[in-house]
Amino acid sequence: MRPLLDAVLTIGMLVVVPAGLRLLRVPPWLPPVWWAGALPGAASLWLERGPLAAAAASVYALATVCLAVQAPIRLRTRHASLPVPVSGPGSAGPSRSPAPHAPARRLPAPVEVAVLTAMVTPAVGAVALVAERAGHPLWGFSLKILALTVAHFHFAGFAAALVAGLTCRAAGDGPLSRAAALSVPGGTLLVLGGYFAGDWAELAGAAVLTTGMWLVSLLTMAEVRRGGHDRLNAVLLTVASAVLVISMLLAMSWALGQAAGLPHPPLNWMIATHGLANALGFALCAIAARLRLRPEPL
């Protein structure tokens, strides 16, 4: 099953994240830097574990760091763009003046959380990738778990958080969209915490993430029903929504079985079903549909 996992990760590095970067406000130099790291990163997956594979993965890790540092830069820029009272001699009262580099439109805070999560999570996956390619059981985790961590933070991290932000912006600011935009990043990070805290904490993270993904599915289908999409986009969004319902049921069944000692699908079966469905049916379809709409980047 490892070749299938490597193929899924290669799609994440070379297709999903580069496509997703076109939907984010990032510096123009970042996509070429990403490609410079992603190509050796993808190659590292197909090399034997050892120094060469670890070195190639480390180049990829540098590219993910370049993306991750955009998060604090974005926060600083957003803070600087907040209106501040300005008063002076002869003024009738406080006035407000935007920063010269303020974005044209400020996103709701929950959507910003989703965007920031999308920016930083590939770097978490890259740390696991370097350790796994070096054959080092980082923090005592098996190499298989490290490899699955790489997938989790590219798809449940980057792709799901990005799609949640895009979907919630399209749906408008409301209780369901805010809940989706917050619970997808929150669930992703809770699953990470569950790696250290134990299976029940991981189950809680899976429940939060599943709730968020199902909300994204619900909002997406409501958007399709409102109309305004051509047939191909409607099909892509419908497929992405349907896949989320099924794939997250599988994730919950696995997490519950792991925590409660109940029968649950083996990891290899989860890679072939949950993992492949999320990569091809959800991430690729959802991001392709959003790209075809040519929206203003988040």
UniProtKB/TrEMBL annotation:
For bias kind Low complexity, which ranges apply?
Answer: 84-99
TM ranges: 7-30, 50-69, 113-131, 143-167, 179-197, 203-222, 234-257, 269-289
| Keywords (A to Z) from UniProt | Membrane, Transmembrane, Transmembrane helix
- InterPro entries per UniProt: YndJ-like
* Region named Disordered: 84-104
The record's annotation in Pfam families points to: YndJ (PF14158)
Annotated protein name in UniProt: YndJ-like protein
Q: Which organism is it from?
A: Planobispora takensis
